[in-house]
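2024-03-11 09:14:02 DEBUG pipeline.ingest accepted 1 chain
2024-03-11 09:14:02 DEBUG pipeline.ingest length=224
2024-03-11 09:14:03 DEBUG pipeline.predict start
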Amino acid sequence: MREQLEHDRVIRLLQAKYKRKFEVAINPGNEQTAPVGPAESPWYPDLVLLASERTRKLVGVVEVETSESINHLEAMSQWKTFSSLNVQFHLYLPLSGVDSARRLCADHQIVTTEIWAYHVIGDQIRFTPVQRAPQAVDGKGRSASETREPAAPAKPVAAKPAASSRGAVSRPRTARPVAKSAARSTARSKPRAAAARTKSSAASRRGDKTASRKATASKAVKRK
């Protein structure tokens, strides 16, 4: 009787906890108000979690056990059935029965979404997470990562060759051609300047001879 009262008290505390995310229906004691599973042979877990939408879709079940209800019969009949509903399955156990429940789940291949331990401290009941599935689990007991196809292996990227020390230092190659072209232009301009000077001097000599001839002719005309 004491364990049954404690069992129903845990159910009502969990009802207030899960109401934040879901619509919660409970089956405390001998009540059978929220069935799950086929209509011809329904099951009545301690808490039934429904979606908050209008569809009221079943999203999870919660089962609370006492130290006396953790046995092979309970695991084979209820835990196995709740695990195969393809919804979240949360299992709450007294702290002293955690190891036994783990062995039963391993022996019967029962997959749980979460396992919690509860213990009484004075007038309060404390909940402690014991085991939590890393990802959502389907009805076949496979995680979402196992059902996905493996990713294609990444192609290796070829490493670029390192630049050589000679190519790393850039040399000013444009300075030399510029200097050479300037020297060539200077060398070409020198003969042209010398030729121009020679022509100008020859023209000046011719002008002087012509002027002297004209002067001599003019003196001869005056004498006559």
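2024-03-11 09:14:41 DEBUG pipeline.report The CA atoms of residues 62 and 90 lie 5 Å apart.
2024-03-11 09:14:41 DEBUG pipeline.predict end
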